[in-house]
Automatic annotation (TrEMBL):
<feature type="transmembrane region" description="Helical">
    <location>
        <begin position="20"/>
        <end position="39"/>
    </location>
</feature>
<keyword id="KW-0812">Transmembrane</keyword>
<keyword id="KW-0472">Membrane</keyword>
<protein>
    <submittedName>
        <fullName>Uncharacterized protein</fullName>
    </submittedName>
</protein>
<keyword id="KW-1133">Transmembrane helix</keyword>
């Protein structure tokens, strides 16, 4: 089971598409947090 998990994690790490979507998701999450924290004063 441990090997299966590490193999899956390695697949996730080696997959550029998953990494790309993970990056996009994190960026949106951070933007939402920043916008919410600052009350959306920076309108773009």
């Amino acid at each position: 089971m441990t090997q299966r998990i590490s193999k899956y994690q390695r697949f996730i790490m080696m997959n550029p598409i998953i990494q790309f979507f993970k990056f996009i998701f994190l960026s949106i999450k951070i933007m939402v947090i920043v916008a919410g924290g600052h009350g959306g004063t920076k309108s773009e």
